[in-house]
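Pilot study result, target chain (687 residues):
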Amino acid sequence: MPRDIPVGNGRLLVCFDDEYCMRDVYFPHVGQENHLGGNHGRFGAWVDGELSWVGPGWDRELRYETDTLVTLVRLSHERLGISLECRDAVDFHEDVFLREITVKNLLPKKREIRLFFGHAFGIYGNHIGDTAAFDPKAGGVVHYKGERYFLANASTPELSHPAQFATGQSGFGGKEGTFKDAEDGLLSGNPIAQGSVDSVIAVHLTLDGLSEEKAWYWISAGETWEEVRRLDALVKHKGVPKLIRRTADYWRLWAHKETPTLEHMPEELGELYRRSLLVLRSQIDWQGGIVAANDSDVVHYNRDTYSYVWPRDGALVANALDTAGYPIPARNFYGFMAERIEKEGYFLHKYNPDGTLASSWHPWFRNGKPELPIQEDETALFLWALWHHFVLYRDIEFIKPFYKPVIKNAADFMTGFRDEETGLPAASYDLWEEKYGISSFTVGAVFGGLTAASLFCTMFGEEQRAKRYGKAAAEIRDAASRHLWRDELNRFCRGLHRDEQGDLRVDPAADASIWGLFAFGLYSADDPRIESTMADLKEKLWVKTSIGGMARYENDAYYRASPDVTGNPWFISTLWLADYLAEKARDEDGMEEALEIVRWASRHALPSGVLSEQIHPLSGETLSVSPLTWSHATFVATTRRILKRLGMMKLCPTCGMSAVADIRPINWMERLYPEACTSIHSLCDRV
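Predicted structure:
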């Protein structure tokens, strides 16, 4: 199920499914330690002797307030004659989840309406050894285990604490859970339970006919009982409305901090651009790790989640944030990853949000031989993104500590990690983490990474080292032209691999990731070979249904929804096509096809603005995880690319400034280092 409206602050992340059930609670790292452990929190209303948990039977609209990480959820139940409007947020500064509920009595008679909030925490991701206890000092219920504490509380204008509570055991011995105790509208008041536990609290409201009233609910997260009591007291002192208001103000200011000129683009694209930035921020841990996705339902598909830090995904997200004018979260990511690099100069597969090594399916030993379990593009793209960060922000003191242990170390590794026969990067796993070989995407990324390292060395005065890295990049480009271009395909191939006898074989499949051959500077978008390649990819991978969009590659089996199409449309692969079209465009009319693809992405976002990984090719429903951080980063990056290209088309003839976009001047480097830039331009322009 998609996670329509995640809210968080970098330490506490709360995610809801499309039925408005709380499904994921991460603390104190985004994406690590899901304290619901596969369960979900319940929210329901009791009226006229009947309890209904929000879900089936309710009309639901899940959105955000514009340009904030505050939700705007509208719920209604026609038969019960009530509607609820909820605003959810995680305070931008304190680790507290907040909810304000406006309850409306849709009937002309006076009625009592009771709201119930159920909690089924599985702290640290399991349901062994938890405790749920009523706290008479706070007036709420505390769930705890080890160093994780969650205090749930609620209030109304008449009562500063819940009117009812109960704790109990659930999930074993035939016990469904304390939530069943709420069905008659009355809770037992049991003060403590241990083991696999749940709890329910309730507030009571009396509403005149056709009137409305408010109630408030919150969960404080901490590492001690004292800490959650402190946060609970803070909420009571300041009030939920004030905390939600300040959080909305903060995120609105953050989203507009670097807003580009968007008036030449459709309004809905500007809204999705800012929504994407906010979703990106919600998926970034306070220590700098950029998490791929936090939708725990995917565990049912492959027994693992996307709640990890992939260096590649993170580098592309950080680059999108850099180009959008948000260098601080990008810097935090670069610092986080710099501490992870191996002494030999490469990054491993993926990492947990706290920086520890994450699960992997890449072996260290295969076919009787040791091998590196890496995706080399992850190492390369870190350098590529770091260079572009430096070009934009010129923060030499930030870059300095990375120069020797990361930049030179990684470049030395990539220079030596080469296939002896072809001169291309040596075999590693591809960006889809499926095939072991020499992929075109990785070749493009390594070229970009070595080019970045060469430029860094020029900046730091190491000319010989800069030439060595530049020479390696040029050799890789020449090798790509010899081995990856295939006359029989009239395009670049997906990659190369060796058979059991060690002979080189061509992988001819159409794959959207061949985009990487021009995206990182190896070839220009108007190279005839790139033109031929992208035309063939569009022909083979565009989903020929009313939904449209680009599949990842031919016959993609991952979450495949229909045998009638070659694969499901992915947001990233579709937006990559827009990147190419934007680079090729020479005037505003030529830009229209790229803009239409960006509109396609907007049309297939959830109503909240969230982008999934892929969508159903026949129905357009979300598939796989949602939101996917990479999807939102690609939307931001593609939008920036289009704005930049439009800006170059609309330069003022008098002052030279763009009439469309806030294009940052980058020619400072050429002024300071003209010979180095001439050299690197020559390298990039070679055939």
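One observation from the pilot: The radius of gyration is 27 Å. A full batch analysis is planned for the follow-on phase.
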